[in-house]
Amino acid sequence: MGVNKGSCISQADTLEKMGEFWDTHDFTDFDNRETPDIALQIACAVPIELDLLSAVEQQARRRGVQVETLINLWLQQKLAEQSPKRSRMRGSAPNKGMEPTR
Fold it and tell me: Is-above-0.85 flag for pTM?
């Protein structure tokens, strides 16, 4: 243990006292189930062509943002552009818009 540092739960100031405390207690007695122990962030790796990644990195540097931030922003913008098109296609007849133009 560090200098004069005790266990915050057991209030023990030695390893021996801390061991004695935990011999008679369980950590779940002190667990706050309403407060998450950790925050999770889900990430996904997507392969990107090297030349394309290089161009995105240059754009991110110019804008002063991280590559991930720029990619997320661009994907959000592209999805927003596509949303009206998707909603129009949902109300259309099956296969409409899938036919070749003449």
Answer: no
